[in-house]
Amino acid sequence: MNSIDNLKAVIAKKGGVAMQNRFQVFFQPPTANSMKSLLNKDPKSLVGDLAKNALAGGSPANIIPDPRDISILCESVNLPGRQITTIDYQAERQSIKIPYSAINEDVTMSFILTNDFYMKKMFDAWQSGVFDMQNYRAGYKKDFTTDVVIQQLNQQNIPIYGVRLEGAFPVTVSSINLDNNSENTIQKLSVTLSYENYVPEDILDTIKSAVSSAGATLGI
To answer: pLDDT digit string (tens) for 165-206?
Structure first.
């Protein structure tokens, strides 16, 4: 017979319950595979940003994106699901389902937008590599895909489960509403990623993937 005491005992034995707000994401956008392209600024723009940053009392280091910025600005994300597709096979007595393929769910992320529109500009640049609207030409897949790591954390911010999206790229960058009636509303950006496959990772693998992604972003 199930009881609240049995439930509490099982939860305690398993290290507590997993919390929705404990997560982090890591990826290296293909348009930012070096420190130069990560800045993505010409000298004139860079000088202008340095001047504005100094007037605001900030450090010059503030204009260099930190690999952790993406994870911090990510407000929500979903761990992908997978559906096994089947066909009906007529056996001797009844129809049975035979698996023949699998469908991976797209992943949707929501980001908080800052006043430099960093996430919006990053995904705009990424999408322009996927499909060039000026020349109406698709890019080479190897040039616009990257791996994305999504991790569930425990209360001590230690990864307990992770997935790596292989060959991911943005298929949808949502519209952004501007509204005079929304005086105290924070701007957010929703992005949907498609990918070739996702691979569950254990604790050691998912920590290694996060470190590798952060190092690649910095060109290490």
So the answer is: 999 999 999 999 999 998 889 999 999 999 999 999 877 776
Using alpha carbons, select from 189, 39, 33, 191 the residue that is nearest to residue 114: 189
Supply the CATH number for residue 34's domain. Answer: 2.30.110.20
CA–CA separation, 66 vs 64, rounded Å? 6
Helices (H), 56-202: 69-73, 118-130, 141-144
* Residue 152 token pair: 């569930």
Structural domain for 150, as ranges: 15-217
Stretch (H or E) spanning 98: strand 95-104
Task: Report if residue 1 sits inside a domain.
Answer: no
Backbone angles phi, psi at 32, to 5 degrees: -135, 55
Give the span between the Cα atoms of 171 and 193, in whole angstroms: 6
Count of domains forming the chain = 1
Task: Give dist(CA 159, CA 196) in Å, integer.
Answer: 23
- pTM: predicted TM-score of the whole model, two decimal places: 0.78
